[in-house]
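User: I would dearly like some help making sense of a protein record. This is the protein in question:
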Amino acid sequence: MRIVMVGPFGLRGKGTMSARALPLARALVKRGHETTLLIPPWDSPEDAGRRWTDAGVNVINIHLPPAIPVLNHLLITRRLVEQALKLQPDVVHAFKPKAYAGLTAGALWWLRRLGLTAGALWWLRRLGLTAGALWWLRRLGQTDIRLVIDTDDWEGPGGWNEIGGYTPAQRSFFTWQERWGLTHCDAVTVASRALQTLVWGLGVEPERVFYAPNGAEKAEVWPSDEARTSPEPTDAGARTGDTVLLYTRFVEFEAERLVAIWQRVVEAVPTARLVVAGQGLRGEERSLTRLAEGANIEGSIVCLGWPGRAAMPGVFAAANVAIMPFDDTLVNRTKCTMKLVELMAAGLPVVTEAVGQNRAYIEAGISGVLVEPGDVDAFARAVIALLRNPDEGHRLGAAARCRIAEHFTWERLVVRIEEAYAYAAGVVL
């Protein structure tokens, strides 16, 4: 098939396109499909207009229009639609039903629904579409592009609308856009079981919804010798025999609870050091530092900021245990965090809470440690136990890597995406 994946944002910042769409596209290329990532790089304008090939995947960053309120959103959507049509895809896979990806999928749905009658073409001409664009729009009525929507987070009430810092108008629009997009497409791919249930609850037939959680690429599960011996974290002094890694964007938990957990760990293991790799959306790492100072444990915490993907193998190699506090919220129940996949693929023993997809990846006591959500004492005890018993940590880490290799590589998961495409196209596999 010829597949175009449309993103809501660029490849540099948020993880959906870089950690989900791109590795999936690479796996599709290996399966013989022609795959293009179509990107509106509003959050990485330095990429505007750039094109490159990544392991056979064509990456196209559209040119950005002038930043004119409202108008620039329409122009970006128009450019995405025009470029998608020029590529003559069999399937357009929109990653997220919101923002530019959702707008592009919606425009293609309406154009297909209209059938591009003479009257529709007249109105489109009046709206300023070029002769070339109109030619491609005519082709749309002949090629019947199939639309697939991917969702890896719940965006509406109780979801990212509550933590994304959006205006009331944006929250209202994203709520509508999510519901409309997920119910006006040929197939839906979801990253978690909770999302699957929510999409069913919108009235989408179960056979149109395809569960495809996040995975790792083989090179991440079996790292090269160079990756195993890569440099230590930025603060080399952070590495000790009792190093605990927190790899986070600070959206999964309250900083106060993390400090309460860490206080208990330090009381039992005074040599323990917490290395924090990541930054919050609104500077939550600074709040963590203030809270740690108030609890007199600031000397046991090292904040690296965001080291960058190239440095992460070294950060993983410097840790003995990884932790992932996970509040029991709708956002966390529906998300499928790539950070857990990366930590397990690196062979780290992970302590996290039994919320959402965490239970799909970790077999409790076999490939990691799951504690009941909100139980600070149990969480701390699990970390302390692993720090005191390195052999158990090594066993859990090795089992975690095998778990990802056997069940959660993109080479395996891509088959579910192909099933979604085949269903959308009416093809029997």
Q: What stands out?
A: The first strand starts at residue 2 and ends at 6.
